[in-house]
Design a protein that fits this description.
single chain; 127 residues; alpha+beta; Trna Endonuclease, Chain: A, domain 1; 6-stranded mixed sheet; 3 helices; 37% helix
Amino acid sequence: MNENEIGKIIVDRAVRLHMALGPGLLESVYEVLLAYQLQQAGLKVRRQVAIPIEFEGVRFDEGFRADLVVEDKVIVELKSVEAITSAHQKQVLTYLRLTGMKLGYLLNFGAATMKDGIYRIINGKIE
């Protein structure tokens, strides 16, 4: 399964989850439920994944934590905020650059509709 196929499943399940629960819950609630739904769809999902970072020749085992890593190909960062900022988007882009992964999603479950809370981010640009 390629990144785009995985992404379609992620978006579909996020929309379903948002429709069922609505906005306003804690990010951690959406994280555990989305991970469960993606696993039910047959995807390998890891939560709160420590991603190592190398700086000045020194490796740090826990540079940052990705909310979800799906099939070891797609990073998903979850938010439950009133508005997404460019800093949130840059965060996912940096995660992609540091891991070498090609595709990430920034999902804001705080948006009135999930359609308005989905940001698809490709290593190298934000869509």
